[in-house]
Amino acid sequence: MRGNPFLTSGPAAASSMEDLSIEDGSWTKEEEPKKDKFIVESELLIPGKGDPITNGSIVVEGNKITKVGHSSSIATEYSHLPKYNVKVLMPGMWDCHVHFIAVQAVAWDAILQSQQKQALTGARCAPDLMRLLDAGFTSVREMAGCGIQLDEAVEEGSLVGPKIYSSNSIISPTGGHADLHPLPKPWFDDLCAHGSPFQTADGVPECLKIVRMQLRAGAKVIKICGSGGVGSELDNPVDQQFSSEEMEAMVQEAARAQRIIGAHCHGKAGIMAALHAGVKTIEHGSYLDDEAADLMIEKNAILVTTRLIVENGLKSNKDFFSSRGYAKLREIAAHQFNAMQTAIRKGVTCAIGTDSTGTLPPGNPLSKLVRQGLNAMELYYHVKAGMTPLQAIEAATANGPLTLGPQAPKAGQLKEGYDADFIGVDANPLEDIKILIGPDHVSHVWKQGICYKSPGKPISFI
Ligand SMILES: [Zn+2]
Fold first, then answer.
1. Which residues, in sequence order, are CB contacts of 155 under 8 Å at separation 6+?
2. Coil, helix or strand for 62?
3. Residues annotated as region Disordered (predicted)?
4. In a structure prediction context, what are the per-residue pLDDT tens digits for the chain, which is 462 residues long?
């Protein structure tokens, strides 16, 4: 991994000028970037999966973790390496359901504006990416939005943020959750043709084509609507949307390209149909009951409940959702918490996802509530619904990559051969999960072996 010119600290911090040499009068990059090697020691190492290690350490080489163990054994063998000390060491967190659309409200007209002013949307997303990394989120799964383009900016070093695995669009039938109902249909189709991440398809041939278009755009996962939604205007969250035949066709098309499908599902009919069709992640899952939980376990599917947006919507008291959306939100809210409790009690595999859509501007009274960077609130809600803090951390780390199926990187765990994405925390989240919320207790952030944040050196890209 090449030194990032925007780094503020760490062994890999290097001036971009140092990475360049002059040959024949032109600037050329070095062939082989140097692999940095260092140790991180901790008072408590939480591996993501498995038991914590008191006084645990890791050895990092380049962008990989090469050794994990008790500090005494590692210190003897690797005493010559540079060393960091943190209180608690754990994998970087994953938010498996975000949107980079920077909307100012969950309403069709706000979404429309975010699509009409794409440069403004991109500009608002840039600090959101930094907020996520600052809060210890080193990876996100984006379930519709401009994540593919933002990921390109992060990868090339123009922006600092988490790794983004995006679905590109959300796909529903005409009139479904991904449709903007109040718009004349030709206007909506025109938006779709100009890069909007909202798409409709009807019947198997159109469904196949729209999946192929997401693959063409670079989607790592395919997002479809198995039920109606809350933020959309005229559909009902309880109703199934795509037919079983349409869902099966899309699952198979995605599978041919080694992708899985994540289905937005509130109502039970949609959850059951999606699982029978081979969908691997259920998003929201508001009406999941014992029978649906059993089927999830049988199908080895993962639940991403997104409680944060529900709680924020309720607290915002009609100011963040449209009036129709707010009425639907109130209808599903209690069901959704029961569904989380059921899933946790039954042992369904859960991953953490918040449905965060952006950060409201400072003048907005809801800006302290609705923002990227408070995503670990979702771990708190999972603990409230029955998880231990250790289970919630597993859901936010080791389980994150599982939501990408065959596209999953070896990440989310402090394990030999895994990506060097990890964070230092200055208090014990096993005693109080809330310390993970926001950037304050996240003392260090490494992504791909590069230190982006350490005490006294905040995240910055300028
Ligand atoms: Zn969503």
1. none
2. coil
3. 1-28
4. 334 444 444 444 444 444 444 455 444 444 444 568 999 999 999 999 999 999 999 999 999 999 999 999 887 888 889 999 999 999 999 999 999 998 888 888 888 888 888 899 999 999 999 999 999 999 999 999 999 999 999 999 999 999 999 999 999 999 999 999 999 999 999 988 888 899 999 999 999 999 999 999 999 999 999 999 988 888 899 999 999 999 999 999 999 999 999 999 999 999 999 999 999 999 999 999 999 999 999 999 999 999 999 999 998 877 888 888 888 889 999 999 999 999 999 999 999 999 999 898 888 888 888 999 999 999 999 999 999 999 999 999 999 999 999 999 999 999 999 999 999 999 999 999 999 999 999 999 999 999 999 999 999 865
Strand 442-447 with 422-425, pairing: antiparallel
Q: Which residue has the tokens 């014990």?
A: 428
Residues flanking ion ligand 1, Cβ below 5 Å: 355
Answer yes or no: 319 catalytic.
no
How many Å lie between the centroid of ligand 1 and the Cα of residue 439? 23
Q: Domains (ranges, CATH) in the chain?
A: 16-91+413-453 (2.30.40.10), 93-407 (3.20.20.140)
Q: Considering 163, 220, 223, 453, which one is annotated as catalytic? A: 223
Tell me whether strands 56-61 and 64-70 are parallel, antiparallel or unpaired. Answer: antiparallel
